Amino acid sequence: MNNFMNAFIYHTVVVAAVQPLNLTPGSLGDRFAAVPPVPDAISARSPRQSQYRTQATGGIWFPTPAPKGGVDTASGDRPIVLHFHPGGYVMGDVRMDGAFAARLLTEKIGSHAFWNLCRLASNPGGQFPAALQDALAAYH
């Protein structure tokens, strides 16, 4: 089983076709949100990999966009959940396989969930620390 997993991960990272980050809303409409690059002051930079710059990404709100002023948990509002896709920043896309888990998260834990679209490590310019920069940008 271990050899199978190693072969699968190798194929996904090295051999698989590049899956570009799609920042167009498409059928998501106002549920899609553009995320500006993280400010340099809080950027995660590795001196060895300074060629990887922050860049704009996006995310998807479930079930609807959160209110403009946010939520007030002190008054009893449920929190907003910031979710990172469990593909290890290597594979997957929240547009294809996120609806079930998002519905579960919003029903059981939070009022809204924001699913971050991050650059994948299998894409050019997506190696570490790109996904960390995307996560910081979504949180910021």
Care to describe what's here?
By secondary structure, the chain is of the alpha+beta class. The protein has one domain (25-46, 55-139). It contains 4 helices and 4 strands, in the order αβββααβα. The chain has helices at 2-15, 94-97, 99-108, 130-139, and strands at 32-35, 57-62, 80-84, 112-117. Strands 1-2-4-3 form a 4-stranded mixed beta sheet. The radius of gyration is 16 Å and the shape is globular. The model has no long low-confidence stretch (mean pLDDT 77).
Helix/strand class? alpha+beta
Count of helical segments? 4
The strand line-up of the biggest sheet is: 1-2-4-3
Number of strands: 4
- Number of domains in the coordinates? 1
Protein name: Alpha/beta-hydrolase
InterPro entries: AB_hydrolase_fold
